[in-house]
Amino acid sequence: MEPDSRVLPPRTARPAGRHAVITAVAALAGSLLNLFSIRLYEGVTLHPGDVLPLAVTIALGPVWGLAAALPVSVAHAAS
Fold this sequence. Notes:
Strand content: under 5%
Largest sheet: none
């Protein structure tokens, strides 16, 4: 039986390394944004009410980076 010429050849898998690099760069960007936010507190005496916003800023640094990488990751996986 002859092969069907309409059938496309199997897609070659893209290297997983590219996906990891995109995510790592975005997480790094989020961490840098996080450090910039923390620098805003330098020279300011922290009051008890300032500790919670600062802790939230520190905790959200990697989340911002991963959120920035999500659209790129989804587009990369879909292509």
